[in-house]
Amino acid sequence: MAGKSLQDFMPDDVDRSRFQSLATAALQDTSGALPNAMHTTMRGPNTMLQIELLYVTFQGVDGASCLVAGLRETVDQAVSDLSMSARASSGSLPPAPDDAAPGAKA
């Protein structure tokens, strides 16, 4: 990935220019480093990924303005589905009827 910019992985022109504008504004802002976020689509291996792009600026030891970014894949799953998944993984849901022990009464 040497020689590639983050925008090279954004297939949408609007996302690329929006990130460029936001990052440039963040680097020029001298009032303090506040974290920022934007949602974008990025190109992955043979797929498109919905990403939350988190970034913050800071001054390097040489005084230059720097930007560090983190990526988090977003999942389009309903809140109720997420709640059920969390409860099931924590063991707080009763077993499904197919999982019941043989001879157990439902």
TrEMBL record:
Region Disordered, residue ranges: 84-106
Entry superkingdom: Eukaryota
Low complexity composition-biased segments: 88-106
Protein name according to UniProt: Uncharacterized protein
Organism per entry: Zooxanthella nutricula
